[in-house]
Amino acid sequence: MILRRSGVRIGLVWGVLSAATVLGVVFGLGPHMPPGQGTPQAVDQSTTNTLMTALAAPVLILIPCIFIYCVVNFRQRGAQIQDGPPVRGHGPLQLGWVAITTVLVLFLAGYGTYTLLVTSTGAGGGQGPNPVAVPGGDPLQVQVIGQQWDFTYRYPGYGGVETTTLELPRGQMVELHVTSIDVIHSFWAYQLGVKADAVPGTDNIVYVEPTKLGSFQVRCAELCGIWHGNMTSVGYVVSPSAFRSWIEQQQREWAPVTKQLPPYAPAYYPEPVVRGG
Amino acid sequence: MQTDVIAAPASRPAWRGLIGFNLLTGIVLGIVGFAVGAWLGGMIGDGLRWVGQSDENDIAIFLGFALGLVGYFGGLGFFNYPISRLLGHPPSLREYDSEGWGRYFRMCTDHKVVGIQYLVVILIFFFVAGFNAMMIRTELLRPSPSIWPADTYLTLVGEHGTMMMVLMSAAVIGPFGNYLIPIMIGARRMAFPRIESMTVWMTLAAPIVLLSAIGLGGFPTGWTGYTPLADQANLGMDSYITAFILAGTALTLVGFNILATVFTMRAPGMTWGRLPLFVWAQVATAILMLLSAPVLVTALLLAVLDRTATTTFFTSGNGGSPYLFENLFWFFGHPEVYILALPGFGVALEILPVFCRKPLWGYGMAVAGMLGIAALSFMVWQHHLFVSGINAPLRPFYMLTTELISVPTGFLFINAMGTLWNARMRLEVPLLFVLAQLFNFLIGGLSGIFLSDTPSDVTLHGSYFVMAHLHYTILGGLGFSLFAAFYYWFPKMTGLQYNMRLARIHFWSVFILFNTTFAPLFAAGILDMPRRAVTYASYLQPINDWVSISAFLLGGSMLLFGINVVYSWAIARKPAVDNPWHSRGIEWQLPTPVPVHNFERLPVIVAGPYDYGVPGALPVMQPEAAAAPAGGE
């Protein structure tokens, strides 16, 4: 009887705290959840982050509630040691716990798979050379080349010009081909919700569709040597007409360099470091 | 094969004790071996193109380490027995396990001596690696390199990460596993006592080899050692590779030793259903060690060939691939994190019933949870590579398996809550640490679910979120369980009392400061701070300054622990009462200090270890059972 009342008390506290936290997460934190609302890929990540936080919060509240309640109420002091009731388990409770956790986890895995494959064509993650979630239409091709310690960008549709900043037109699906010419980097465009490792010799494809004008932060997310933290720059999402004039200006400006560059390829094989003999 | 100890004649000068097969000889022969190997490597590398161009001779370094280790193990006496067997001497099971100080500085086949040796090694290097963390946090007070040059910073990161991984893999299973497993199953020794002793000397050598990287130009790769960055690295990379090969070999050996011991040497009546959960956890861990660590060693041996024999296993082009290293590394690396976590859960579930004065709630479920974690942990490794460009159709599979692993982990949490429910709890320091461990691991585990989901992981991968997550599971989970185990078993292992008030201060300070240090790092990661970067965006400086100051205080709290250890063990030496926790565990029924051969006669196990409050429960063992066979020696 006392134990049942304990359970009801914990349940009440847990219910109130969880409800408040979940509401706060969904309506307070949700709209500001990183990485933001700049692309459908970023929106999917934000939604997933909010959903996970909302599901994790009740668990995070429940277990400390039980711990604290037990420590406060089921404690003994003094020199005389009393033993507790020799209860070894509770079948229905154990089965119920397994069932609930399994259902939660399967739901999360199902939701994640759905996001990954259906709604946002890969959720902004690098899919390797043979992507499974492919958008229709004719995406803009941009190659991202990582090297110590900067990213450069090639536009094969515009004469293979190589630029030092990334500009993308709004409302256009972009197919990023991420590769590297020395060590492994990871191309992280924070507000776009894009992250893809740049591996030498590999064409790592990401799809992203910028829907908001403005700037985004580019960083490297894989340790690539001493100036890993400095491998950062700012990219811009601009209107299609602004993009056209920018890329034409880039083509003119870099024309002498473009002639010297190796022809555009999905990946480049520079001479690797071979040590030893 | 017990030999009587012959007391040294009084006339024998003290320095004579230094001569023989011991650590000193090992160090001297190790240095000699290194010099010979490096000279040999210099001869081989002399005409090679790479060596001539770069002035870097990896062959000399690797040969130096190899021959140095041969000298070290030879000096410690590990080749004596194989050689004497080759010469036709009769087999024996034990060496140097008599009394006296000397046995702590040499190969000793007494598992209790090995446990103490492990404990000292782990504690010393825990503080060394922790000091590295303090230096890292000092640098991160400013958003651009100010105190250490950028390459020194990366070396500090790599030293901290690798050393902690090497040590923490052995943190519970080394000291407490070796000391307690034979006692808990009612045996007199481990199945392979010489190999057991060898692993502790490997665990001592690995961090020292790793530290030698500082003198060889450092290494820039962190603990993951990814190529091609590793191919660019200086000779310090060779120290990393050698240290990790040593550690991986030690893990493999510990793994099969524990499995052989528990499978074959349990006392009569020690059924699988009576096996203490601490031992079950070490069995699950041993399976992981045995199956995953050889993959690491293989990958690193291939890396050695890449660096010396111009093979191209891990370069892009010429038939090699950096993905090969990533996959081999994480095929070890993910089971490795459960090698770190599972012994901690064993400690928690072992300690909970003692202080709750109740049987463990859901024993079978706990065993299933541990074995389930062990089985699933081999199927999740590519979640470290979600954005790397691996075969895209595999990502949903790894997402599913990774999320499924939270189900068996959940088993262990309901075991803990069921045991706490309606308990008669005695809130001693070990129990406090167990509760804090479970709380920290809960946060670590829940943050892991974010990382297991590919869309979330695209945001969080490679950021400080991952760093906070792994510190919550490893330092918050395993580290706290190490403290719990220390405070619980220290009176048994040394026969001494520690300062209880200092222990309570240590608990509260370490628990609060751990959370104030690592919780803000989740936020730093979400706000786009990449891991292992010496420069970061200036708007992150307030968070980083807070974390650094909190980390310094956390380091101070760890010093309190260190002071307590040194004071109680070396200075105060207050004898502890027998069985201060009124535990039913077999180890507490033996006299302190535990005799060299543990049991006068092999015990018969007649009851489970957690039968607290069971009316008419028998003691766990009947020590003088007439039926006990005299096997084992």
* Separation, N- and C-terminal Cα atoms of chain B: 8 Å
| Low-pLDDT segments, ≥5 res of chain A | none
- Main β-sheet description of chain A: 5 strands, mixed
Q: Biggest interface in this structure?
A: A-B, 99 and 110 residues
Summarize the structure.
With about 280 residues, chain A is an alpha+beta fold. Chain A is built from 4 helices and 10 strands.
Task: Describe this protein with a few key phrases.
heterodimer, A: 277 residues, Immunoglobulin-like, 5-stranded mixed sheet, 10 strands, 20% strand, B: 633 residues, mainly alpha, Cytochrome C Oxidase, Chain A, two-stranded antiparallel ribbon, 21 helices, 2 strands, 63% helix
Task: Describe it.
In chain A, helix 1 packs antiparallel against helix 2 (40-73). Chain A is elongated, with a radius of gyration of 26 Å. Chain A is built from four helices and ten strands. In chain A, strand 2 (150-155) and strand 3 form a beta hairpin. In chain A, strands 3-2-1-5-8 form a five-stranded mixed β-sheet. A five-stranded mixed β-sheet of chain A has the order 4-10-9-6-7, covered by helices on one side. Chain A has helices at residues 2-29, 40-73, 91-119, 240-260, and strands spanning 140-147, 150-155, 161-163, 167-169, 174-180, 185-189, 194-198, 204-208, 214-220, 233-238. With 633 residues, chain B is mainly alpha-helical. Chain B has two domains: 18-89, no CATH class; 108-589, Up-down Bundle (Cytochrome C Oxidase, Chain A). Helix content of chain B is 63%, strand content 1%. In chain B, helix 5 (111-139) packs antiparallel against helix 20 (541-572) and helix 16 (429-452) packs parallel to helix 19. Chain B is globular. Chain B starts with 22 loop residues before the first helix and ends in an 11-residue tail after the last strand. The chains are: A alpha+beta (277), B mainly alpha (633). At the A-B interface, helix 2, helix 3, strand 7 and strand 9 of A face helix 2, helix 6, helix 9, helix 11 and helix 12 of B.
